[in-house]
Design a protein that fits this description.
Blueprint lengths: L4 E7 L12 E7 L7 E10 L3 H5 L20 E8 L9 E4 L6 E5 L4 E2 L16 H14 L6 E4 L5 H12 L3 E6 L2 H9 L5 E4 L5 H8 L4 E5 L4 H7 L3 E9 L18 H10 L3 E4 L9 H13 L7 E5 L4 H10 L5 E5 L10
Parallel strand pairs: 8-9, 8-11, 9-10, 11-12, 12-13, 14-15
Antiparallel strand pairs: 1-2, 3-4, 3-6, 3-15, 4-5, 5-7
Helix pairs in contact: 2-3, 2-8, 5-6
The structure holds NADPH dihydro-nicotinamide-adenine-dinucleotide phosphate (NDP).
Length: about 350
């Protein structure tokens, strides 16, 4: 048995409303050993993503919840430190689902080998991974962008929103990014090449958004819900498309929002404006993964798609960073740098 300790973050309790640090517990456990067809990976990078808020609830959803006392789940880039698989050997860098912990035993069939010479390995958790593919597939399949159309997207400096905006621009759209605060709005224009940026925290946000979309909105890529959706809704043009990707403003709601029931107006607009509003989960389009990798890889190499990372150091800081993500304190793809490659395998 190895005496190397594996620090890991467990779900301690289910949040009522907004999660707090008390919902997590850090513990050290003996480092696990791989069985046949498995490898032991040392986590180098952990991805923190909004969907993890849903996994903290017991409610039925498209994926099973994390159990109380279980390791929080999450995508990871790790280094193989010992292997009982013919497919992987020590030193390989792999993409997997290791969770919020320093070491993980993972089955060979769940892993993809990464080439560190092709791209920084952590991009497999961001622009070249799940969030990038979410942007690519949701925009193309449901948004169906056409030259000259106006696209709006919120959470627009995050890995999904920033990628949506840049792809839409490549497809000839006019792009309007919505983000929280002046620094993020500046980055939308200067870094990511949006045509206009609107701060959803401004008191006159609905008016500013209307002014930024003089011809209305043809595609609204929905990441947020809440007050942003309320401001977008009247601006939707006839035949507008709304890929419903996320609704982070509502993830911690414990009751329906106050106010009148707006369902009749929504259904009225769907009918009279012939709106197409469709939810999706990225893996609905798993068959398009190769197209995504090829096209996105080329756009990044050509400098046509930019990405921004927000890196936090150490597994112990994952809970605090995750709470910040839900509040908009991240600025770019949120990653935890857990370790550097090249350490010896535990015995
Ligand atoms: P981000 O890195 O963009 O982080 C979330 C951002 O949401 C925050 O930084 C904040 O940005 C914004 N935000 C939080 N609360 C509010 C609010 N009340 N009103 C407006 N904006 C808010 O996240 P991702 O790019 O990883 O994910 C974006 C969305 O896509 C999420 O809803 C996520 O759940 C969804 N998603 C869906 C997938 C699918 O398969 N359907 C797959 C992957 C992601 P700001 O400061 O700018 O407000």
């Amino acid at each position: 048995m190895s005496d190397v300790q594996n620090r890991r973050i467990l779900l301690a309790s289910r949040p009522e409303g907004k999660p707090t640090l008390d919902n997590f517990r850090i513990e050290a456990a003996p480092c696990p050993s791989p069985g046949p067809g498995e490898v032991l990976t040392k986590t180098l990078w952990l991805s923190l993503d909004p969907y993890m808020r849903g996994r903290m609830n017991a409610a039925k959803s498209y994926a099973a919840p994390v159990g109380i006392g279980e390791v929080m789940e999450g995508g990871t880039v790790g280094e193989v430190v010992s292997s009982r698989s013919d497919l992987f050997r020590p030193g390989d860098i792999v993409l997997g689902h290791g969770g919020w912990q320093e070491y993980a035993v993972l089955g060979e069939k769940t892993l993809r080998k990464l080439d560190p010479a092709a791209a920084p390995v952590q991009t497999a958790l961001g622009v070249l991974g799940m969030p990038g593919m979410t942007a690519y597939t949701g925009l193309h399949n449901i948004g169906q962008p056409k030259p000259g159309e106006t696209l709006a997207v919120a959470a627009a400096t995050g890995p999904v929103g920033a990628t949506v905006g840049q792809i839409a621009r490549i497809r000839g759209c006019r792009t309007v990014g919505i983000a929280g605060g002046p620094a993020k709005c500046r980055a939308l224009i200067e870094e990511f090449g949006f045509d206009a940026a609107v701060d959803h925290k401004a008191p006159d946000f609905p008016e500013k958004l209307a002014a930024a979309c003089p011809g209305g909105i043809d595609i609204y890529f929905e990441n947020v819900g809440g007050a942003v959706w309320t401001a977008v809704f009247p601006l939707l043009n006839d035949f507008a498309r709304v890929p419903v990707c996320g609704r982070i403003a509502n993830y911690s709601d414990t009751a329906p929002p106050p106010g009148p029931d707006r369902t009749p107006q929504l259904f009225g607009a769907i009918l009279t404006k012939r709106l197409r509003i469709q939810g999706f989960i990225v893996w609905d389009f798993a068959s398009q993964a190769k197209d995504f990798q090829r096209e996105m890889g080329a756009w990044i190499r050509e400098g046509r798609i930019k990405y921004r990372e927000d890196v936090v150091e150490g597994i112990g800081n994952a809970p605090e960073a995750f709470l910040g993500l839900l509040e908009g304190r991240n600025f770019g793809k949120l990653l935890v740098k857990v370790a550097s490659p090249g350490m010896q395998a535990p015995d």
